[in-house]
Write a structure and sequence with these properties.
By secondary structure, the protein is an alpha/beta fold. Helices cover 41% and strands 14% of the residues. It has a six-stranded parallel β-sheet with strand order 7-6-8-9-5-10. Helix 12 packs across helix 13 and helix 21 runs antiparallel to helix 22. The longest helix has 22 residues. The two termini are 54 Å apart. The relative contact order is 0.10.
């Protein structure tokens, strides 16, 4: 019996057990019936057990809780697990088929979605009334008694939102904190700032004369960041976010007053992203020294900044608790904090970061608003940058950037109604000119972002360049095609050279047998750099096209070709990804390394990691939480870049395929990108589904 028949049999069996369904039109839906219904959905995997358990908990808290509230709570918990911070009550007014994305069996079955919704309120006002009637379970008004209710009804009368209590608290604190920082007016010596910006960027815009937009957005972003304790710089790959941040640091150093030195910290959500941020900032500052002149000691600034850290390390993560060492009562000791890859920062982490940041410190958020949001709930950067492309700058902002940066903005970037534009919009700048993604990969990324399936198809037909064909689109019959790519073979018969796992395994094979630690370290660095030339990215973990199966398949294929000699769990050449933060070992969730022997001790294996130019190792016996990493999820790849990226789109995963996932996968590729569709139409379906996360964050700054 195949999986589909097993699922159908399970549906039929559960339906037979729910005889009370036939009596519902007469007796109505009770809380007990509702819980039985929700538990049945959890048994079938349509809900998580955690979702139905929340409904049960609320019923214990309030035996009179109406069925509508129990259903709303279960759906809310389910959506929180998918990254949403709240649930629009209007989405419950009709069966939320699209919202949940359930298969037809779950929607049409006798105990499915449509059957349950036939006994629930039919409009938004009726749902609001049901939620407001359950005061022990749901806080629904600012003037009503706060009894610690697990649910909170917020939003507005026209757009009510249902929250889990802690997410409502996170949103309120984050929204108010961001607004307060954006509104803080800092004194700026405009003439002096203009002098330094002209020195760092030149007096003329960098854009070519034929450009429709001659604005130097990088220069403008530096100017805007001077005005308040918050600035947000967004843009796609190659637009120069860290290049701009480095010049901002030099500018802040040049304008810094006081006896104490400028205290700067760099951070990112993952170790790889933090290492890249530090490397990029250091390189940009060193290159800027000649323009800065002898009066500005940028080398000293580089040394004082120290290494970039993960947000967990920066805040002082502690084992067995979600609390951090740094918080409002024990703030970070910084004047300026730059956070890269901010799209990956979820709502709870942003709340912790803002709580730990002194009110007087400057926060600079860098990130691509079009990338995937965090795995956990919230899309803070996406909410902040939702209208960044429009600019919407007020008159005072326009005057300031003309005075300090010499930039005059086109009318389309000016606010039509100054009263309706938030202070956050005035502190947000979108960089628009990519200096890296102007070839086929960049064209493909732009077409995906625009949701233009025609242009996407055309991009794959672009002729090969001097370095071979940059884009390939394969529709193989089996996952074996992924193994062929890993071995450096083209499933479509092409002959252009491609980066593959053979590149790094050749260096593993050639690893010198030496007791010279420096010689060994140099060879290990080459292995790690070569491994980062190719990566397989997946949308899911499970299934034939997920990370688990593909990791096993690729390892087997490489072993059969003689490139690997797997002997137990740990063996030379095994790529590994850390799955849990371990501050004692100095490894963090998402770190990727390769298992190799120690210098002069071939039988002693370590996992080696490269952070920028810094090499570190951990004994494999101490690395308890790690997985093989030939294939990784797109989420885990954020903050990384590979010469050749292969993106695998699996069948039957409509709920996870989105425009942002495809865009993020494409923009991990530097030179070559291969799309692998398990079946025709998956790419078009994905780019037709922009990912929108339910959030009420914008209500706190009046956007």
């Amino acid at each position: 019996m195949n999986l589909r028949k097993i699922k159908q049999a399970s549906v039929s069996a559960l339906a037979a057990q729910m005889d009370w369904l036939h009596d519902l039109p007469e007796q109505g839906l009770s809380a007990e019936n509702t819980l039985q219904w929700l538990h049945a959905w959890a048994e079938l995997g349509w809900l998580r057990r955690l979702d139905s358990a929340l409904a049960t908990q609320l019923h214990r808290l309030d035996a009179k809780a109406p069925p509508a509230l129990l259903v709303a709570a279960a759906v809310l918990a389910q959506m929180e697990g998918r990254g949403h911070t709240c649930l629009s009550v209007s989405a419950l007014a009709k069966p939320p088929v699209e919202l949940l994305g359930w298969p037809a069996d779950a929607v049409l079955a006798p105990q499915g979605l449509l059957a349950l919704w036939a006994h629930l309120p039919g409009d938004m006002l009726a749902w609001v009334s049901a939620l407001q009637s359950a005061s022990p379970a749901c806080l629904h008004h600012a003037d009503s008694p706060d009894l610690g209710q697990p649910l909170v009804l917020g939003g507005s009368a026209d757009a009510p939102l249902l929250y889990l209590r802690r997410y409502r608290a996170y949103e309120e604190r984050v929204g108010k904190n961001l607004l307060l920082r954006a509104q803080s007016a800092l004194p700026v010596p405009e003439v002096l700032a203009r002098d330094w910006l002209d020195r760092f960027f030149g007096q003329q815009p960098h854009a070519v004369a034929a450009s429709e937009d001659p604005t130097d957005w990088q220069k403008l972003a530096c100017a805007v960041a001077l005005r308040a304790h918050l600035s947000v710089i967004t843009g796609g790959p190659g637009t120069g976010k860290t290049y701009t941040a480095a010049r901002l640091l030099a500018l802040l150093l040049a304008l810094h007053e006081g006896a104490s030195p400028l205290r700067v910290a760099l951070a990112a959500p993952t170790g790889k992203a933090a290492a890249r941020l530090k490397q990029s900032i250091d390189g940009s500052l060193k290159a800027l020294q000649q323009q800065a002149g002898a009066s500005l000691e940028l080398d000293t600034l580089i040394q004082r900044i120290g290494p970039a850290r993960t947000l967990h390390a920066l805040l002082g993560a502690r084992p067995d608790t979600r609390m951090f060492r740094h918080h409002a009562a024990n703030p970070l000791d910084v004047d300026v904090l730059i956070v890269d890859e901010a799209s990956m920062v979820h709502l709870e982490m942003m709340d912790a970061l803002l709580q730990a940041l002194p009110p007087t410190a400057r926060l600079v958020l860098l990130g691509d608003k079009d990338q995937l949001a965090s795995v956990e709930a919230g899309a803070v950067l996406g909410d902040v940058c939702r209208n960044a492309a429009n600019g919407a700058y007020q008159a005072e902002t326009l005057r300031f950037v003309l005075s300090v940066a010499g930039q005059s903005l086109a009318p389309r970037f000016q606010a039509a109604d100054a009263q309706s534009v938030s202070a956050l919009a005035q502190q947000t700048v979108m960089l628009r000119q990519s200096r890296r993604f102007d070839g086929p990969i960049g064209q493909l990324a732009l077409a995906v972002n625009a949701g233009d399936a025609g242009q996407v198809a055309n991009a794959f037909e672009l002729p090969a360049g001097k370095n071979g064909k940059a884009l390939r689109r394969l529709q193989p019959h089996s996952p074996q095609a992924v193994c062929e790519l890993a071995l450096g073979r083209l499933a479509d018969g092409g002959a252009a050279p491609m980066a593959s796992y053979v590149d790094y395994l050749q260096k593993v094979r050639d690893l010198p047998v030496t007791e010279d630690a420096d010689v060994h370290a140099a060879a290990v660095v080459q292995v790690l750099q070569s491994f980062d030339r190719f990566r397989i990215l997946c949308a899911v973990h499970q299934g034939d096209w997920g990370t688990a199966a593909l990791n096993a398949a690729v390892q087997k294929a490489l072993a059969e070709e003689g490139w690997l000699k797997p002997q137990g769990e740990w063996f030379a050449g095994r790529p590994v990804m850390v799955m849990r933060n371990d501050t004692q070992l100095g490894v963090f969730n998402g770190d990727v390394g390769v298992v190799l022997p120690m210098a002069g001790k071939a039988g002693v294996l370590k996992a080696w990691f490269l952070d920028g130019e810094q090499l570190r190792s951990v004994s494999v016996s101490r690395l308890a939480h790690a997985e093989t990493a030939f294939a990784m999820t797109v989420h885990k790849s954020q903050g990384s870049e590979f010469a050749h990226t292969a993106l695998v789109l699996p069948p039957g995963a409509a709920e996870v395929l989105s425009r942002e996932l495809v865009y993020t996968g494409i923009t991990r590729a530097r030179d070559q990108f291969t799309l692998i569709e398990a079946q025709a139409g998956l790419l078009d379906a994905a780019i037709a589904r922009p990912g929108v996360r339910a959030s009420g964050l914008q209500q706190w700054w009046g956007a």
